[in-house]
Design brief:
4 helices, about 55% helix, mainly alpha
Amino acid sequence: MTAHPPTADRMRHDISRGLSGDKVNHPDPAAAPLGTDDEAAGHPPSSDELRIAAATALSTPPKKGTSGVVSFYVAILIAIAVVVLGVLTLR
């Protein structure tokens, strides 16, 4: 987690930078940025809720490796298997 005080905007920024471990360092445009719904409803999150959310969302270290490439090849193999099975069942 960063040294900055937890705010919804800070968490969104850290998540977009890839610090949550589940996405790459790239901005994520959102129609309703994190925290907007709560504020619009008149119930912005308390500092304790933000602290807990930041600790939870940013507790996973960023992943390293080429899991995206492996997933791509697995998807290709599954697609080929589905086509082959489809052709065999039509005979």
